[in-house]
Design a protein that fits this description.
The complex is a heterodimer of chains A (about 130) and B (about 850). Chain A has helices at about 10-20, 35-40, 60-70, 85-95, 105-115; strands at about 1-5, 25-30, 45-50, 75-80, 100. By secondary structure, chain A is of the alpha/beta class. Chain A has one domain: 3-Layer(aba) Sandwich (Rossmann fold), CATH 3.40.50.2300. In chain A, strand 3 (about 45-50), helix 3 and strand 4 form a beta-alpha-beta unit. By secondary structure, chain B is α+β, with helices and mostly antiparallel strands. Chain B folds into 6 domains: about 5-135, Four Helix Bundle (Hemerythrin (Met), subunit A); about 140-210 and about 220-260, Alpha-Beta Plaits, CATH 3.30.70; about 280-360, no CATH class; about 425-490; about 490-590 and about 625-670, Histidine kinase-like ATPase, C-terminal domain (Heat Shock Protein 90, 2-Layer Sandwich), CATH 3.30.565.10; about 680-840, CheA-289, Domain 4 (OB fold (Dihydrolipoamide Acetyltransferase, E2P)), CATH 2.40.50.180. In chain B, about 45% of the residues lie in helices and about 20% in strands. Chain B is built from 27 helices and 22 strands. In chain B, helix 10 runs antiparallel to helix 11 (about 295-310) and helix 19 runs antiparallel to helix 24 (about 640-650). The chains are: A alpha/beta (about 130), B alpha+beta (about 850). At the A-B interface, helix 1, strand 2, helix 2, helix 3 and helix 4 of A face helix 1, helix 2, helix 10 and helix 11 of B.
Amino acid sequence: MRILIVDDSPMVRRFYRASMEGDDLVFEEAANGLEALEKSLRRPFDLLLVDINMPLMDGFCFMREVRQREELCHTPAIIISTEAEQQDVEGAFQAGANFYLTKPMRPEVLRVYARLLAKEEDHVGQ
Amino acid sequence: MLDSDLLHSSSLEIQELLESASNALLAVEDTTAGEQPDVDELFRALHTMKGLLGWCEAPALVQATHAAEDLVDACRAGELVLTTPMIDLIFETLDEVSRGAEVLLTGAAPGEEFTPRCADLTKRLRAQLGEEVPEVAAAAAEVTVWWFELLDEERREAFADEQEERGEPLWAGRYVPAAECFFSGEDPVATVRAVPGLCWFAVSPRSPWPDQEEVGAFDPYTCNLQFHFLTWGDPRDAWPGGPVSAEATLELHALTRDELLCTSGAWTEETVDRDVHMRRLLEAQLVVLSHAESWPGRVASVAVTLKRILHNADLPGRPEAIDEAATDAIEAGDGAPMVAVIRAMLNGRPVGLDEASDVAPDEAPHAPPPTEEAPSVIPITAAPSAASEPPQKLAPVPSASPRGSKAAPRSPSGGNGHSPVLKVEQARIDQLMDIVGELVVAKNSLPYLAERAEGEFQSRKMAREIKAQHAIINRIAEDLQNAVMRVRMVPMSNAFGRFPRMVRDIAHRLGKQARLVMQGEDTEADKNIVEGITDPLVHLIRNSLDHGLETPEVRLAAGKPAEGRILLKATHIDDQVVLEISDDGAGIDLEVVARKALAKEMITEAELQSMSEAQVMRLLFAPGFSTNSEVSELSGRGVGMDVVNTMVMRASGELEVDSVKGEGTTIRITLPLSMAVTQVLLIETANETFGVPLSVVRETVRVPPDEIHVIKHQEAMILRDRLLPLYRLRKVLGMEECAVEDDGAHPNAGEAVLVVEAGGQTFGLIVDRFHAGLDLIVKPMQGVMSSYPLYSGTALLGDGRVLLVLNIKELLHACHVPQDRRHPAPSRRAGGGRGLASVA
C-alpha cells in the first residue's frame, strides 16, 4: 500500500514513517498541498495523511482538490493536525477528509488506523 | 516518549523554526505603520513548533507557544495589531523554546524547570489577547507531571473519597527549600511536617544524586531536596514557619476530583484497541456524509474506507453491497444507503443483507446523523508513551522535492532536494583534517630525504627519484587538502544569523534606533574561522551600538537620520575573507583616545607628539584601554578592544580600525579562508630558524651595507624611491649577543632584507639568511607560550624540528617601541623570544 504523507515538517513526516514502519508500506512525502497534488496526479496513492497548516496549499484546499478529481476522489484521507478546535474538525470533514487525528498521537494509534485502512489486497498487520 | 534520536532531530528542526520565526518577527516589526504585516510565515513557524514540542513532551512550552500562536493568529485575522510589547513577548517565548530545544538536543525532555517561566509567559501572552488564565489551570500542568508518579492508584482513590466526604479541597504542593537552608538553621523536613492538615509527603532530589565518579564534586551542605505534599486546606493560611527564606519556592495547586482520579498523568492514555478505533472511524464516515460538497468523490472515498474496514476488521458482509449503496447514494444525492451500511457495520450486522431495516425514516440526507453520542472524533491527545515500543529503525527522510515551494524557506533536508546532502559529524571531518595535516608534514620530509640521498649516500639518481615522487605526492596532498577544506567551508551567515535580533534588542535597551544591514552573508570560510569570529563580532557590534551610534536626538541635531546604520559586510579578497563592521555614528575622537592614554600613563607627552594618527588609533587595542569612562552593561563587561583583538588574532585574523570623527567608524577584520595550511618562508637569524607567513612577505632583497642609512637613529634604505625602515630581527628578538656566523656563500652580497607588509605598513627585516618556502600546518601557541605575542604559532618541519612562526604585525609593534623605554611588555617579549628560540 502506498501512503502519501503531507506535512511541511520533515520531522513529523519522519515520525509518521517511523510509527508505521514494518507494515510493508510504501511512503511518499510531500511538504505542502501543491506538491502532494502533483505527486498524487502522477500516480494515485492508497491513503493520504494530511496536515492542515502548510505553505502554498493548505490541507483543506488539497482535500477539496482531491475530492473533485475523478481519478483521486475515492482515496481515503486522514487529516492530522495540531488544531483541536471544533471548527477545524468540522472543516476537515467538510473538505472531504475521512477522519481527523490530533498531533501528537501515539505511534501505535496511527498504526491501528493505517491497518484498518489498508488496501484489501494487502494483508497488512493481519 | 520519543527515543533520544528523534528528540535530537526534533530539536534541530525546532531550532530552524526558531530562526525563521525570529526573522519573520523582525520583518513584522519592520513593517511600516498602517500596513498589514505578513504574519503567515511567523504563524506557520509557531504552529509547527508547537506540534513538535507536543511530541517532545514539553507541555509547558506547548502552552506558551500556543498562546503566542493565538496572538499571531488574532493579528492574522485582523483582530489586533502586533505592538512592540507583544513582539517582545513573542521573542521571549522563542527564547524559552530555544532553551527547551537545547535540552532536547541532549536527548532529554524539557522538565519542570520550564514550568514557572512558561506559565508566566502564557499568562502575559493571553493577557494581550484579553484572556485570563486562571492561576490553578496554569499550575495544573506542573502538578500533574509529578503527582501520579508518587502515589499509587489506591491511595489516590482513597484521597478522592475522603475529599468528597470532607467537602474541602485537597491541596498539592511542591516545596523547594533554599539551597543554603542548612546554614540558616532551617530544617526543611520539620518545615514540611509543620504544614497544617498535612496528609502525605514525599522527598526527592532536585537534581539526580551524583553517581560514584562524581561524588567528590557533590556538596553535601547544599540542599538538593524537594518536597511534594498533600494537605487539607490551603496551607498558606496557617503555616507556622512556612517557607523560611525568600529563595525557597512553594507551589500550590488545589486538586480537583478528576485530577485525583486521572490514572495516567498529563496525557490521556490512548487505547490501541482496534475495535474502539474502528468504531470511531465508522462514526466519522457518518460525519463525512453529512456534508454535501463534492458529493460523488465524498461517497466514493467513504465507500473505499468502508470496504477496507470491512475487510481488515473481518466484519461480516459483502463488499459489493457497499459499492451498490455508494452508486445509489451518488445517483440519489442522498446518503441514506451508505448510512445504512455504516449502521450495520457499527452494530455488527452483516452488510448487504437486511439494510432496509436500518434506514430510519427520519434520516434526512446531508443532515448530521443522529448518533447516541457525539461523533467520536475526539481529538486524540495521547503522547507517544514510554510504554510504546520505540520506532527501532528509522527510515531516512528523503528530500522532498521543493518544486514550486520557493516562497517558503525550507529546512536543509527539505530544501536540498536536487543535490543529495550528507550530514556528517564535525569530529569526523576534523579527524580527516588532522590526518591531512600529518600527510602534509610527512610529505615535507621527502626533500630532506632526497638531500640525504645525495649528500650522505652519494646517490644523485636516488635523490632525483625521491624528488619526482615528492612532486606527485605533493600534488595529491594538495588536492586532498583542498577537498577537505571545501567540506569545512560554511557561509558567514552562520555567524551573522543572530545579529539582527541582537541589534534590535540592544538598540531598544539603549533607546537608540539602529538598522543592521548585512552584505555578503554567503561568503564562505572555514567553519572554525566562522565560529571563532562570532564572539569578536558580537563585541564589535555591541561597541558600535553602545559607543558608536548616537541617540536619535543627537543624530538629528547633527543632521543625520534618526536611525543609525550598521553595515556588516563580508567579501573575499584573494584567499582571505574581509569582514567590515561600519557604523555612521560619532566616530572615534583621536584626541579623546590620546588624552585617555596619557591619563592612564600608557604613553608620555613626548611620545604622543611623535605618534602618527594610526599609532594613536592602535592605542585602542592596548590592554586596559576603554574610551567609555563607566563600564556599561553592554559593551563594557571589562571586555575592551584589546580582548576583541586577541580573539580575532586567535582566529588567525587581523583587526584594523578606520574612523572619521562625526562620520563613523569602520572596523576591518581580515581572516584567512582556512586555518589549515599556511605558506611559510623560512629565515635564519642568530643560528635559529624562524618562519614568516608568506602572505606578509612582499619581496626579499640583498642590500650592500653602504646602502643602509641611519636616519634619526633608525636604519633605513631606499627601495624603488621609497624610504623603507629597517629593523634587525636579532635585535628585535633580543639575540644581539649571539655570534654572527659568517655567511660564506655570499661574502659580498650584503644584508639579507625581508620586505614585509603588515597593518598597512611596509618595512624591512634584516635577517641572516633566507631558506625555502614551505606549506605547513601552523598550530597556535598553547599554554604558557601563548603569552608571547611575537609568535603566531608553531609548525612541525619535515625533519622533525619545531619551527616558530613570527607574527609580523606584533613584531612591527615591538619595533616601534623604543628599546630603552622602561616598559614591561617589549622587554618581556624580547626575553621570551630568546628563551623560545633556544627551545626551538
